[in-house]
């Protein structure tokens, strides 16, 4: 029996079709901002409700039907008791889906211990929001390449090898470009089973196999640095490869090929092929096969990977001296600000007085609300916040 199912996901999504403001204070902020911008908030909220009305009526309890029908469920005029009841119903749906994901995680943890170390290391981090980059079917084996650049794994590219496939179930063939949303791995009598929910288009895919293996690669830290600084478009592939750590191994991995790569006398050499850069094209030749990539569509540095992890944000973890902490946390220098908040996050008990002072001086804005909610929840859980700070950030705390 699977925990992760398309039905469970769809119910969760339908229960979150119409988010609403959680408190009178939140409504005050929204109303004030709408007035300042000259926005017809009532009309916009009506449009949002109209867009989801039909689906919403399928899942909300009947006690909310009158407020959906008259269009007041997401308006500031909704009675407080109804608003709190609706929010509780939404949270209950969230908890229900969280239980589904927790059970799926338990099944995955149980199964993965019977698989190679590389597979265990892949599943130690989330696959959520990774994207299919390449699919190869060879006999009764499938090679699935996932690009995790938009996801939550330090591994930039994951190569799953599903071996001796017993069965495969899917509403439609999986495609390059689809996003992995949720997954679950189970051990079965005949081997293992892997269930994935994809998006873009939405589909449920289940594969049963006797063996599962994996390998993975990382982005060079220089790639992340240059990407953040806007230098990738201004630099050549040769410049890039000449500046990465020469002691590491590197691969060229495209939507079609995987080759070891190195620099030899200012030339880019493939271990089992040839690489040529001609105007706006990159040609990769492997034997009689030749693959061409339009460099107006691809940046060749995107194809470079290594098997060594370098933390591209290591400098953000350098502690800020206590005497400079308050000023750094409130300054305009983003890097220094991040270092300051990371310093406070790591030593909340020791820095409690400074943390409370900084939080009292902060102004909650739309831009920093998410960041503040993460840090405040951590400090609140640790128990170092003063009552006045707790009251100020009440809306951000669970």
Structural features, described:
With 398 residues, the protein is of the alpha+beta class. It has 4 domains: 6-106, no CATH class; 117-217, no CATH class; 221-306, no CATH class; 315-396, no CATH class. The protein is built from 13 helices and 13 strands. It has a 6-stranded antiparallel β-barrel. β7 (250-253) and β8 form a beta hairpin. α1 (6-15) runs antiparallel to α5 and α9 (322-329) crosses α10. The protein is globular and about 70 Å long. The chain starts with 5 loop residues before the first helix and ends in a 6-residue tail after the last helix.
Name the beta content range. 15-25%
**Adjacency order of strands in the biggest sheet:** 1-2-3-6-5-4
* Morphology call: globular
Q: Please provide the count of β strands.
A: 13
Radius of gyration: 26 Å
Helical fraction equals 25-40%
Concise description?
The protein has 13 helices and 13 strands.
Features:
six-stranded antiparallel beta barrel, 398 residues, four-stranded antiparallel β-sheet, single chain
Write the layout of secondary structure elements.
Elements: H1 6-15, H2 24-37, H3 41-59, H4 65-69, H5 80-112, H6 117-123, E1 130-138, E2 141-147, E3 157-170, E4 179-188, E5 191-199, E6 203-217, H7 221-228, H8 237-243, E7 250-253, E8 258-264, E9 267-270, E10 274-278, E11 281-286, E12 289-294, E13 304-306, H9 322-329, H10 334-346, H11 352-361, H12 369-382, H13 387-392
Helix pairs in contact: 1-5, 9-10
